[in-house]
Amino acid sequence: MFRKLLLFCCLVGLFSSFRRDTLTWVAIGDSITYLNDHLNETGNRVTKGYMTRVTEQLPHVQFVNQGHNGWTAGRIAAQIETLNLTKADLYSVFLGTNDWWAGRPLGQLSDYIANTGNQTVYGSYRIIIDKLRSLNPNAPIILITPMQRVDFVYLFNFKNNAFGSYKPKNGQSLEAFAQAIDSIGRHEKLPVVDLYHLKGLDHTKLVKFKRLKDPQTGQYRNYRYPDFIDVPFNPETDEYPYPAESVAQTYDGLHPSDAGYERIARALVKRIKRL
């Protein structure tokens, strides 16, 4: 009887040692993060965002969604004290694509190091990271670079559209923003998930095609990337250029589809497991 009791206690101790404490993860971002909890705003083309997918694979992690639709790193930094950020065990920062489109100055790593303020993207990241460290200096901070994008057309307002990262905006490439975030990570020894260069998320994989009117015939054609570049789109008269059958890694040229979110989640899970 004593041996059975001893064996039972040993087994309880063994299995208890494998139990993981719950970790709180605050995910800061723009619409790509925000949409995780607002799937109706994708026209229900997305069933799960990247945070939900991460926590399904890592059940001991609970996320807090601090995604803000349309926000830049500059706006996050400007309002950092009003966001009700809380102490957490893990933080992630997934920004940059809106800064690029807004034409915000990227700046230099020296802006980050010298903490020159919110005039550049480098300066914005310093403000954000300083705030997170003030909440929990021991919490890992994962930096996530923007992913590549092709021509974006908003599902519910065709006039809200933007060209892709295959060309510069305001003299700056989106890749330079990804490289800047990577340089901050290397300087601060923070883990970086580089989505811009992640295999399977390049321009050719983001949509299967873009449906546009052939300028010669006036008839709709399915143009693959890069053939649709510079083919006119009229938001007043043309049909939505990304029908359901065009969805690949994004559903609208910019925001990830289920397949895209799954790729992002897999990359994050690998990084979180290392931590």
Written account of the structure:
By secondary structure, the protein is α/β, with parallel strands linked by helices. It is built from 10 helices and 9 strands. It has helices at 2-17, 31-34, 50-57, 73-78, 97-102, 109-114, 121-135, 174-188, 203-206, 258-274, and strands at residues 23-29, 61-67, 90-94, 141-144, 152-154, 157-162, 192-193, 210-213, 220-223. A 5-stranded parallel beta sheet has the order 2-1-3-4-7, sandwiched between helices. It has a two-stranded antiparallel ribbon with strand order 5-6. It has a two-stranded antiparallel sheet with strand order 8-9. The radius of gyration is 21 Å and the shape is globular. Residues 5-17 have low confidence and may be disordered.
Give the oligomeric state of the chains in this entry, treating copies of one chain as homo and distinct chains as hetero.
Answer: single chain
> Count the helices. How many?
10
How many beta-strand runs? 9
Q: State the secondary-structure class.
A: alpha/beta
Query: What's the arrangement of strands in the largest beta sheet?
Result: 2-1-3-4-7
**Major sheet:** 5 strands, parallel
Q: List the helices and strands in order.
A: HEHHEHEHHHEEEHEHEEH
Mean pLDDT: 94
Taking the alpha carbons of the first and last residues, their distance comes to: 43 Å
Uncertain segments: 5-17
Keywords:
9 strands; alpha/beta; 5-stranded parallel sheet; 275 residues; 10 helices
Topology:
Layout: H1 2-17, E1 23-29, H2 31-34, H3 50-57, E2 61-67, H4 73-78, E3 90-94, H5 97-102, H6 109-114, H7 121-135, E4 141-144, E5 152-154, E6 157-162, H8 174-188, E7 192-193, H9 203-206, E8 210-213, E9 220-223, H10 258-274
Parallel strand pairs: 1-2, 1-3, 3-4, 4-7
Antiparallel strand pairs: 5-6, 8-9
Helix pairs in contact: 3-10
